[in-house]
From TrEMBL:
Keywords: Cytoplasm, NADP, Nucleus
Signal peptide: none
Keyword flag Aminoacyl-tRNA synthetase: no
Organism encoding this protein: Xenopus tropicalis
Cellular component GO terms, alphabetical: nucleus; perinuclear region of cytoplasm
Ranges for domain NmrA-like: 4-278
Family of this protein: Belongs to the NmrA-type oxidoreductase family.
InterPro entries per record: NAD(P)-bd_dom_sf, NmrA-like, NmrA-like_oxidored
Protein's UniProt keywords contain Nucleus: yes
Intracellular or extracellular location(s): Cytoplasm, Perinuclear region; Nucleus
Protein name, UniProt field: NmrA-like family domain-containing protein 1
Annotated Pfam families: NmrA
Length: 299
């Protein structure tokens, strides 16, 4: 019997990497090498119990990265801008991983990328957490690594945190402050990423070299609010906030997220049909909301 292919999963205790590691383990056809900075955290211990090989690596340490990738056939790579708010650091980490995957001859890398907005707009708009990933996408290809980029939309899960509705001035209703105007916003549950990546890894010839824009739903902010209202029994409305008003909200990342929404208003390619082909069980927003409505009890 042939040995199972080893897939290294970066960020394995986070939202994206955790979904990918779980899906690979559920598939049963792979040896999962779960990469994390802290092998003692509960999520890492659960992965070990589920059958993953859990290894420690610091993305700022090339020796660590090489040790974590040695012997792997493929890898899922994700970096986290929001950990440090530093585009240059994210680029350095991504390029470091790319160099190591090239040197070790990995057969397929699935990279959690995004568009290089600054390049696409001729410098008119910068979205740092997109642009860095876009530069790393370009670098993987420039050095000849067989890579597929999966570009996620806004997570539905962000509606539990960053974009959680807030009480309106009337004290009774709630505002959903997402500056999209009358333009559809793509979304999906980050928990549905894993099966997408498994499908991509199964068909390298079909997907190497491709950028796959993911989405399971395209809705107006008012439609998101209506679905949330029906699920929670609370009245949630589109706040109809402008991009400039959003940028001036003052929380860390407000400017960055405002720029992101400005790019979303340019309608980047996100393919619902392909996403559902890659993961037929991926949830639409209404289904996700029904599963998560209890999280809004204390709204």
């Amino acid at each position: 019997m042939a040995a199972k292919r080893v897939v290294a999963v970066f960020g394995s205790t986070g939202a994206q990497g955790g979904s990918v590691a779980a899906a690979l383990l559920a598939n049963g056809g792979y040896t999962v090498r779960a990469i994390t900075r802290d092998t003692t955290k509960p999520a890492a211990l659960k992965l070990k119990e589920a059958g993953a090989e859990v290894v420690c690596a610091d993305l700022d340490n090339e020796t660590n990265v090489e040790s974590a990738l040695t012997g792997a056939d493929s890898a899922f790579v994700v970096t986290n801008f929001w950990e440090h708010f530093n585009k240059d650091k994210e680029i350095e980490q991504g390029k470091r991983i790319a160099d190591v995957t090239k040197r070790l001859g990995l057969k397929h890398v699935v990279y959690s990328g995004l568009e290089n907005v600054k390049k696409l707009t001729g410098g008119k708009l910068e979205v740092l957490h997109f642009d860095g990933k876009g530069e790393v996408e370009e670098y993987f290809r420039a050095i000849g690594v067989p890579m597929t980029s999966v570009r996620l939309p806004s997570y539905f899960e962000n509606l539990l945190t960053f974009f959680r509705p807030t009480k309106a001035s009337d004290g009774e209703t709630y505002n959903l402050a997402i500056p999209m105007g009358d333009i559809l916003l793509d979304g999906m549950s980050v928990s549905d990423l894993g099966p997408v990546v498994v499908s991509v890894l199964k068909c390298p010839a079909k997907y190497i070299g491709k950028d796959i824009g993911l989405s399971t739903d395209k809705l107006l902010v008012a439609q998101y609010a209506d679905i949330m209202s029906k699920a929670t029994g609370k009245t949630i409305k589109d706040a109809k906030i402008s991009l400039d008003a959003y940028r001036s909200l003052g929380f860390p990342g407000a400017q960055e997220l405002g720029n992101m929404f400005e790019f979303y208003q340019m309608k980047p390619v996100r393919n619902v049909d392909l996403t559902l082909e890659l993961n037929p069980k991926a949830k639409k927003f209404q289904e996700w909301m029904q599963q998560n409505k209890d999280a809004y009890k204390d709204l």
